[in-house]
Design goal:
With 110 residues, this protein is mainly beta. It has no helices and 8 strands. A hairpin with a 5-residue loop joins strand 6 and strand 7.
Length: 110
């Protein structure tokens, strides 16, 4: 539970953004979090809602759906895998992002 924040970077063209995720308790199939992703090249902040898909061996798999209608945000549902790091941080890997950009990065607890 709690809020984590850090920089994630896309794979195709290395564009960094500030990513924040807040988790709440829940079970598989339930909404367990919210995200915000602030682009490093514009003032756009894209938001999402997370549904828990699975938890196993220090890894949490979630499905993100866009929350809002900002035309600058992709509107593409993405899968996010969070892995627990030594020291209590999280490593995020996104799959299914627009154009295969699939960003990843480390997040620290706020």
């Amino acid at each position: 539970m709690g809020t984590f924040k850090g920089t994630i970077t896309t794979k195709i063209v290395p564009l960094a953004s500030t990513f924040t995720v807040t988790f709440a308790p829940g079970k598989v199939g339930e909404q367990v979090g919210r995200t915000s992703n602030a682009s490093g090249i514009s003032s756009t902040v894209c938001r999402g809602v997370l549904t828990l898909l699975s938890v196993e061996d220090g890894e949490v798999l979630l499905q993100e759906r866009p929350d809002g209608a900002d035309s600058a945000c992709t509107g593409v549902p993405e899968r996010q895998t969070y892995t627990l790091l030594d020291g209590g941080g999280l490593h995020l890997v996104v799959s299914g992002a627009a154009l295969g950009s699939d960003p990843e990065g480390d997040l620290v607890k706020q």
